[in-house]
Amino acid sequence: MLYHNALSLSLILAIQHEAHRLGFDLCSFTPVGEAPHADFFDAWLAAGRAGEMTYLERHREKRRFPALLADPPSPPFETMVVLAVDYHQFDLPPEIRDDPSRGLIASYAWGGDYHEIIRPLLYELDVFIRNRTGRTTLGKCLVDTGPVLERDWAAAAGLGFTGKNCCTIRPSVGSWLFLAVLLIPESLPEGWTLHQTMKEQEALRRPATCGRCTRCLSACPTNAFVAPYELDPLRCISYWTIEARSIIPRELRPAFRNRIFGCDICQEVCPYNRRLGERTPRLAGLRAHHERIAPPLLEGFDPVHPYWLNQEAFHRQFARSPIKRAKRAGMLRNVCIALGNWGDPKTVPALAQALADPEPVARAHAAWALGCVLAKHSYAPAANLLTMALEVETDARVREEIYLALDRN
User: Fold this and answer.
1) pTM across the whole model
2) What is the pLDDT of residues 231-270, one digit of tens each?
3) Are the beta carbons of 375 and 404 closer than 8 angstroms?
4) Is 166 exposed, middle or buried (0-12, 13-18, 19+ CB in 10 A)?
5) Residue 355 to residues 314, 362, 363: CA-CA distances in angstroms?
6) I need a surface site. Which of 50, 206, 295, 409 has the fewest CB within 10 A?
7) Do 390 and 366 contact (CB within 8 A), yes or no?
């Protein structure tokens, strides 16, 4: 037994050092069993919370029991290696964050697509483990794409706790973490988090919590948290600007302000994320591209590089970026909402182009935004554009938005 434990500890330390060399900031282990909150997740789905994220309905049994992800005749998975990458870089200064002419992009998307960056590192880590143990079968590498409740396993492995904002929080680091898992058949003891100080080990024996703090719940502009630890995506800015492809409910649009891809509010107000300072992600691919932090909203309508209007320009602008997930039409929809919330007459030429877009979902939000300009400034060109569009528009949803835009003035 002592010999087995010594071998396990040696392998654990080797894996953690390799994980750190590859660029992971945290690495820990937990036995593969039943996901602790599988019942909650099933109830959450039954309540219709998934919205357009129908992929969450698939592989329910595997999500509950990750060991089922092993492909026969491979041996069953015994251990989950849970890893995290810290992606925090800096806080946006108020003069940028509060500028209505700029579109805010969630900080996780300032750099490259974390799926593409982290997944190859998991493959490398699995190769390292196989070389150490002689295993010939493959582990299962997942980066926020497979049927695994990552936050459950992050908590089980001691990486942190799940906060009321549904994010994994590590008290010494905060919640700006990408989670990834590697399922392996080797049996290893749980815990042993990489670079864990004695103070942190002691703290994790007395798990941290949010206590009585509800700042994240109160700060959400759309009241997306129906209860602590329970998010309703159908009221969430991130869901609507990233996952959804349909028309965004009118009552939510003003609360988006200038957010065009995701939302960081519930993390920004968290006390665990205060005073983190500036830091540089160890993985170079995650480092911020200046043009993706808070791009000027009107820039993408420029005829030289019209990335909100042209598919090819959109792909060039956001190559290898998570922003591509929202697709061009979805981003144009989001930008139209931000332009409407800005409400400046100088947005009208851009909105005129959006009102002629081939995608109805973009035209619908352009009509709403023109209505906002018209309501704030009684700007005749906005009314003229809406009236002319009504004469040729055939989509019922867009026509409804045009009628409402004209009717409120």
Assistant:
1) 0.93
2) 999 999 999 999 999 999 999 999 999 999 999 999 999 9
3) no
4) middle
5) 18, 7, 4
6) 206
7) no
Q: What phi and psi values does residue 35 have, to the nearest 5 degrees?
A: -60, 125
The yes-or-no verdict on residue 72 having pLDDT over 90 is: no
Q: Are 279 and 91 in contact (CB under 8 A)?
A: no
Does residue 194 surpass a pLDDT of 60? no
**Nearest-CA neighbor of 204 among 170, 252, 251?**
170
Residue with token string 């992800």: 69
Please give the structure tokens belonging to residue 284: 């170079």
| DSSP β-bridge partners for residue 43 | none
Q: 104 is written with which tokens?
A: 């805010």
CA-CA distance, 183 to 143, in Å (whole number)? 12
| DSSP label of 102 | B
Separation of first and last alpha carbons in the chain: 79
Looking up tokens 């820990």 gives 28
Residues sharing a CB contact under 8 Å with residue 49, sequence separation 6 or more, in sequence order: 231, 232, 233, 234
CA atoms within 13 A on the CB side of 185: 15
- Concerning whether 86 is annotated as a catalytic residue, the answer is no
Cα distances from 193 to residues 118, 167, 175, 244, in angstroms, run 19, 19, 16, 36
In the 3-class helix/strand/coil scheme, how is 40-88 assigned residue by residue? HHHHHHHCCCCCCCHHHHCCHHHHHCHHHHCCCCCCCCCEEEEEEEECC
pLDDT in tens, 357-367: 999 999 999 99
Q: Which entry of 144, 302, 344, 395 is annotated as an active-site residue?
A: 144
Listed in sequence order, the DSSP H helices in 308-347 are: 311-317, 327-342
Cα 122 to Cα 181: distance, rounded to the nearest angstrom: 8
CA 59 – CA 140 distance, rounded (Å): 15
107-140: pLDDT as tens digits: 999 999 999 999 999 999 999 999 999 999 999 9
